[in-house]
């Protein structure tokens, strides 16, 4: 296709590209699962992927993609119906096909054609074909039993009644028969599958509706019909997959009508759009029922099908057969047809003029009759239950920024200094109402950008599969907390780190099977990838049960790299040692493999996490494995905070980590010989941290009895924070401090208060550490002053 | 709309070339290249950030954006000066980093052609002069032209950034 691509087409192509990418992303993990257990459900899902890709690519004339998808489909089809057995090679091949599709999509996205992929397509489809041939031979050798796979889908029989139509059967006729419900009588529909069916179904039905409405106003425009036809056809196909036979039947009948319209044959009514819309509403209603977990039963299904049937005027050919004209002759005539069928037959002498005119008359009669019978139908609109829309990320970002500005503007308006001291009852009411609305708007905007990590995690399945094959290790990847939602940009930023960390776990962490058995572990290693919300952060953890970090090796390497000095050795904590692995160029691997060992990966991990103000915790037990936690702040999240004041400074303490607050009495304070203060809270003695020391501020009073102690909890440690007073509670939007300033110990970010001032948010986790450091400094300044 | 976008681009560059925003600081006149300047705002409430060098006064809220504030007097080690209604914050942007500079008073935008700019004087004071880009002469006045990049990212600030990375 060298014709120039117009805007409409570009739009269609782009849509195709996004959809296909999504599909591939979803299904890649499934392909790998396929290697582990051949669940028919998984198989069907993958089959559908290639089938729909083939369909769409075919329609857009991306021949090379079509070819590969078709070959993959063939392979899957044979595996599915048992003609050949699934071999591990097949999984790899299918993965390659996915890779090819991804590359092709990239090219299509920019060039709007896949011509340049010709060679790759050749190679891959050749591989796929070879695999089929080999597998067939193997199977034929091992087991000669015929699995009678070539069941004709029932559609074939139904379509006979339209086989005399001059138009060629649409799209799927040439390709392999579409997978049909009858192939899998035991298909099990999971909730997830049902949801995606409903979602897709809604979309297709909406498109159909749109098409029908436009077509109804503009009969004779064949483009609309083609479009409607495609939608109905895909919908029918989906119904087939899921075994919703009633929906399928009605869809099929609609398709018949549309097919007739498409081929330009006569219809019993001038405009079948109304009738079709009624049927469409029934479909929509049923899809909604399915969404609610009901089955697909349609009331008066037969009636509806008949209503549609009568609009289809019987073909002249059918009447001619009744008149005794041989059927083959008619079919032949139809095939060579340029003139009305009747005339040809007369010319050919296979039918007499009387036969033809009598048949014509009958046809006309039937049309008249049905015209009378086809009553004008009443439409009842049934709205779709749920709809998704794809939005460009840039637009969302500017929306969120605008809302952020709105919040601040609103705060400035309501807390405007000019209004101070005035009695403004009505203004305040209106203001409160507005605040509430703005708050809701903000919360809504925040959730828009959040997406579940499942997509990211599922991508790792493929990675783990590939690496474990390469490194010759056996691995179980366990995914936990896939539904945890993180901001989209954060997900993008942690993708690379996750890849590197997983590679490390697999390559360095996990031992080869024989070593594992020797050390009394199971042959298969386990890598756990989990995500969860904790302390106002998202924690993504990678945990393996391998050999753990080798401290001696790390120290040795650190010494030779000059990261540490000989004299430092004694002072190093385990944490410090573990953190050395993040130094650039640091690698304890003896040899560089193609998976890892260059010492770049961990540096990337660190850099990327710094970008999103994340932190990394490494814990490791020799022989038992290591655990790396990426602690990512919810950059856009709202946290509940307590505004506290010490001297002139106000700060926000996350309410989440606050246990209680009280005014202490001196008899409950113990001072250790080191000068550390301990507060007795019930039966526990908790260290006291003075916030003014952390911030370097002068408090109202440094007497503990004059201020307030807040008990804070971080992970398993508790401590008390000494402040002057609590000012109030507020929901705050976390903003990062500027990159220019970087990370500040004891501070996790800041927010903007109602009066427009910036207010720091305390980082409970690092508060203890930074307090330790500050204390000495503070004492010095105090003694100097 | 037949204009060539490149042409407009070079035009804006041209209009900004050799133009400096000049300000007063402790009796001297300074200038910074106008292309880095985003806007000038009056002094606002600055929130302290702990652990910062003396010249980083804290952060302010600029229409929802949090921007760090550097006191240029403190940066140069000059005597502190009470902020008054003439004190201004010049917001500059370098490679998407926005920083506010506190100065005594903003004067004007001056056109200083290249041939009126003398190279920075070599002094014995180690590297302290390295944020001076040159000395601009307008009539009889001398403006000290600052290299924003070095002003923001050299010396103590660099150490700070390095410390953070450790």
SSE topology sketch:
The complex is a heterodimer of chains A (785) and B (166).
Chain A: H1 7-36, H2 40-59, H3 63-80, H4 88-111, H5 118-142, H6 155-160, H7 191-217, H8 222-242, H9 245-262, H10 273-291, H11 301-311, H12 316-322, H13 327-335, H14 341-348, H15 353-373, H16 393-414, H17 425-448, E1 450-452, H18 454-471, E2 475-480, E3 485-487, H19 488-509, H20 513-518, E4 525-534, E5 537-544, H21 551-561, H22 574-579, H23 601-611, E6 615-621, E7 625-633, E8 638-646, E9 649-654, E10 658-662, E11 669-671, E12 677-681, E13 684-690, H24 691-695, E14 708-714, E15 717-723, E16 725-733, E17 747-752, E18 758-762, H25 764-784
Parallel strand pairs in A: 2-4, 9-18, 13-15
Antiparallel strand pairs in A: 1-3, 4-5, 5-7, 6-7, 8-9, 8-16, 10-14, 11-12, 12-13, 14-15, 17-18
Chain B: H1 5-16, E1 19-25, E2 28-33, E3 37-42, E4 56-62, E5 65-71, H2 72-75, E6 88-94, E7 97-103, E8 105-111, E9 117-119, E10 132-138, E11 141-146, H3 148-153, H4 156-165
Parallel strand pairs in B: 2-11, 5-7
Antiparallel strand pairs in B: 1-2, 1-8, 3-6, 4-5, 6-7, 9-10, 10-11
Keywords for this entry:
heterodimer; A: 785 residues; alpha+beta; Four Helix Bundle (Hemerythrin (Met), subunit A); Helix Hairpins; 5 domains; 6-stranded mixed beta sheet; 5-stranded mixed beta sheet; 25 helices; globular; B: 166 residues; OB fold (Dihydrolipoamide Acetyltransferase, E2P); 42% strand
**Main pleated sheet of chain B:** 6 strands, mixed
Instruction: Please report the two chains with the greatest interface, counting residues with C-beta closer than 8 angstroms to the partner's C-beta.
Output: A-B, 32 and 24 residues
Helix content of chain B: 10-25%
Number of domains of chain B: 1
User: What is the number of strand segments of chain B?
Assistant: 11
CATH class of chain B: Mainly Beta
CATH architecture of chain B: Beta Barrel
Q: If strands are numbered along the chain, what order do they take across the biggest sheet of chain A? A: 10-14-15-13-12-11
Beta-strand fraction estimate of chain B: 35-45%
Question: Topology as H/E string of chain B?
Answer: HEEEEEHEEEEEEHH
Summed up, the domain count of chain A is 5
* CATH architect. name of the largest domain in chain A: Up-down Bundle
């Amino acid at each position: 296709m060298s014709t120039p691509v117009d805007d409409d087409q570009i739009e269609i192509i782009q849509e195709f590209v996004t959809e296909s990418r999504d599909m591939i992303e979803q299904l890649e993990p499934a392909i790998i699962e396929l290697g582990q257990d051949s669940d028919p459900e998984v198989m069907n899902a993958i089959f559908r992927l290639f089938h729909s890709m083939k369909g769409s690519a075919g329609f857009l004339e991306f021949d090379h993609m079509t070819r590969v998808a078709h070959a993959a489909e063939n392979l899957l089809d044979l595996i599915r119906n048992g003609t050949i057995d699934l071999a591990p090679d097949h999984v790899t091949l299918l993965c390659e096909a996915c890779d090819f599709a991804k590359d092709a999509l990239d090219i299509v996205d920019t060039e709007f054609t896949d011509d340049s992929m010709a060679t790759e397509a050749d190679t891959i489809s050749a591989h796929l074909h070879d695999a089929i041939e080999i597998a067939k031979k193997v199977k034929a050798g091992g087991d000669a039993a015929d699995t009678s796979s070539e069941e004709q889908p029932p559609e074939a029989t139904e379509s006979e009644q339209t086989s005399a139509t001059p138009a060629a059967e649409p799209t799927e006729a040439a390709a392999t028969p579409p997978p049909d419900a009858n192939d899998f009588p035991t298909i099990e529909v999971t909730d997830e599958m049902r949801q995606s069916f409903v979602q897709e179904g809604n979309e297709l039905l909406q498109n159909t509706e749109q098409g029908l409405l436009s077509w109804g106003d503009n009969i004779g425009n064949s483009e609309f019909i083609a479009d409607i036809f495609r939608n109905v056809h895909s919908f029918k196909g989906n119904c087939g997959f899921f075994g919703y036979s009633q929906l399928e039947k009605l869809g099929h009948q609609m398709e018949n009508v549309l097919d007739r319209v498409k081929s330009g044959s006569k219809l019993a009514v001038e405009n079948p759009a109304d009738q079709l819309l009624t049927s469409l509403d029934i479909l929509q209603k049923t899809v909604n029922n399915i969404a609610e977990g009901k089955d697909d039963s349609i009331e008066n299904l037969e009636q509806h099908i008949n209503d549609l049937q009568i609009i289809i005027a019987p073909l002249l050919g059918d009447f001619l057969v009744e008149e005794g004209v041989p059927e083959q002759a008619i079919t032949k005539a139809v095939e060579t047809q340029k003139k009305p069928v009747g005339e040809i037959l007369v010319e050919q002498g296979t039918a007499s003029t009387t036969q033809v005119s009598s048949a014509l008359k009958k046809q006309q009669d039937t049309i008249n009759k049905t015209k009378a019978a086809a009553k004008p139908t009443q439409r009842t609109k049934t709205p779709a239950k749920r709809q998704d829309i794809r939005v460009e990320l840039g637009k969302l970002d500017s929306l969120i920024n605008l809302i952020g500005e709105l919040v601040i503007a609103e705060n400035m308006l309501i807390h405007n200094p000019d209004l101070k001291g005035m009695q403004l009852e009505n203004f305040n009411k209106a203001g409160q109402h507005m605040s509430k609305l703005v708050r809701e708007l903000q919360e809504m905007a925040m959730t828009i950008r959040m997406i579940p990590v499942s997509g990211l995690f599922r991508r790792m399945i493929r990675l783990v599969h590939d690496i474990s094959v390469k490194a010759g290790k056996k691995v179980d990847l366990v995914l936990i907390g896939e539904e945890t939602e993180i901001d989209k940009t954060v997900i993008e930023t942690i993708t690379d780190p996750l890849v590197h960390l997983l590679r490390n776990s697999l390559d360095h962490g996990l031992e080869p099977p024989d070593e594992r058995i020797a050390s009394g572990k199971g042959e298969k290693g386990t890598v756990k990838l989990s995500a969860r919300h904790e302390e106002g952060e998202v924690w993504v953890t990678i945990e393996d049960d391998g050999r753990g970090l080798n401290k001696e090796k790390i120290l040795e390497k650190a010494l030779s790299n000059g990261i540490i000095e000989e004299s430092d050795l004694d002072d190093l904590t385990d944490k410090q040692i573990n953190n050395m692995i993040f130094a650039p160029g640091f690698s304890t691997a003896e040899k560089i493999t193609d998976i890892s060992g260059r010492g770049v990966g961990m540096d990337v991990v660190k850099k990327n996490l710094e970008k999103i103000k994340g932190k990394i915790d490494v814990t490791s037990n020799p022989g038992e494995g290591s655990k790396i936690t990426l602690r990512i702040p919810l950059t856009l999240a709202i946290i509940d905070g307590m505004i506290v004041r010490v001297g002139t400074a106000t700060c926000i303490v996350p309410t989440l980590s606050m246990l209680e607050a009280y005014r202490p009495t001196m008899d409950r304070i113990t001072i250790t010989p080191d000068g550390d203060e301990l507060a007795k809270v019930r039966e526990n003695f908790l260290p006291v941290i003075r916030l003014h020391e952390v911030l370097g501020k002068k408090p109202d009073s440094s007497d503990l009895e004059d201020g307030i102690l807040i008990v804070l909890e971080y992970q398993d440690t508790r401590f008390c924070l000494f402040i002057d007073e609590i000012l109030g509670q507020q929901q705050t939007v976390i903003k990062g401090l500027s990159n220019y300033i970087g990370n500040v110990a004891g501070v996790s970010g800041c927010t903007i208060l109602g009066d427009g001032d910036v207010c720091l948010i305390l980082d409970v986790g690092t508060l203890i550490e930074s307090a330790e450091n500050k204390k000495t400094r503070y004492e010095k300044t105090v003694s100097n002053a | 709309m037949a204009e060539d976008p490149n042409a407009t681009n070079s035009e804006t560059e041209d209009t900004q070339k050799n133009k400096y925003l000049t300000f007063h600081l402790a009796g001297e006149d300074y200038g910074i290249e106008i292309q880095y300047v985003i806007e000038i705002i009056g002094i606002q409430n600055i929130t302290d950030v702990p652990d910062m060098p003396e010249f980083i006064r804290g952060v302010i809220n600029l229409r929802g954006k949090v921007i760090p504030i550097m006191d240029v007097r403190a940066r140069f080690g000059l005597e502190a000066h009470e902020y008054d209604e003439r004190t201004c914050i010049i917001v500059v942007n370098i490679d998407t980093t926005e920083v506010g500079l506190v100065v005594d008073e903003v004067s004007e935008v001056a056109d200083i052609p290249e041939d009126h700019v003398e190279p920075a004087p070599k002094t014995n004071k180690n590297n302290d002069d390295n944020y001076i880009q040159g000395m601009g002469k307008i009539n009889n006045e001398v403006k000290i032209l600052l290299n924003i990049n070095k002003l923001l990212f050299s010396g103590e600030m660099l150490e700070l950034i390095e410390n953070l990375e450790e």
